[in-house]
């Protein structure tokens, strides 16, 4: 493995290093600074910006494949698609589905692949509220049962675990996931303030895709009656310990909502996620969300996925999310990159290894042009090239 020396404006967590350099040796970052000398035989790479590889904690597929297809081939296809867009660490995310489909997905994600490195699975579906399914299939939805979820958690490969807080059995599930060191999250939920309080006590520290398939004051009132109660939105905004995420594709959330989320949670409490489907990098047309065999049909117009009036996941990569967030909000370039890299790495518990350009971390490096387009991707010190 040849040493690599990147030169350009280095994007660090605390600022921009103009005319900086990043030296990578043996798959790790060896040095970052202004006066970094390349060792003999090093390959030098120049670019406008040198950035850390992106970290995606909520992502379903790409390039025609969904992780829930449950095959090593689907995993390889999707991870390569996201590497194209600068994601170097990825957490494949489940949909609703049968236990057999979830087990096949978990097994497929442990296979050696290429493209973005799989750092663990986000066990997202099937434990959703029936009235907050979004584009997920109703047949595969169910309440959490220890006999089922303990098998997934015992695999040691689940690193992020989601459940709707109001479901019977949610709190034991949260505690089981927290005990195993997972990032414990609430999503696809119509939970009230009180239910969120109990979820927080059981270990919840993150809420999935803010404003999408989540409770509001009116939706909680419709479910539980008056007096009106606080919802997930108010609970997350009031508690600094809870992070959240936005799908900044320009189709899910208007600019004022992206700005509001950024201003309320800050770059260290807000993650950018793609939540992308198999329609990423595919032409407009009809696709299935979740397993190809029986997933929910949706249509991509090349901008976003839709099931009639319901949005059905994004069709964009993390580079697009970064550009949208930067253009739509007051976030600086440093802050926007943090939300796509270090913040999700911190929340998922992998920041000691990835998420920023610091000596000792994995050599996951991007070269970006002035328009923040991805020009080169290096994963673990090796330049990404599609199979």
Instruction: Please state the overall shape, judged from the principal axes of the Cα atoms.
Output: globular
Number of domains: 2
| SS content category | alpha/beta
CATH topology of the largest domain, which one? TIM Barrel
Tell me the strand percentage band.
25-35%
Residue ranges: pLDDT <50 for 5 or more in a row? none
Q: Over the alpha carbons, how many angstroms does the gyration radius reach?
A: 20 Å
Fraction of residues in helices?
25-40%
Strands in their spatial order, largest beta sheet: 3-2-1-4-20-21-22
Biggest beta sheet summary = 7 strands, mixed
**Mean pLDDT over the residues:** 97
First-to-last CA distance: 19 Å
Question: What's the name of the CATH homologous superfamily of the largest domain?
Answer: Metal-dependent hydrolases
Compute the number of helices.
11
- Total strand segments: 22
So, CATH architecture of the largest domain? Alpha-Beta Barrel
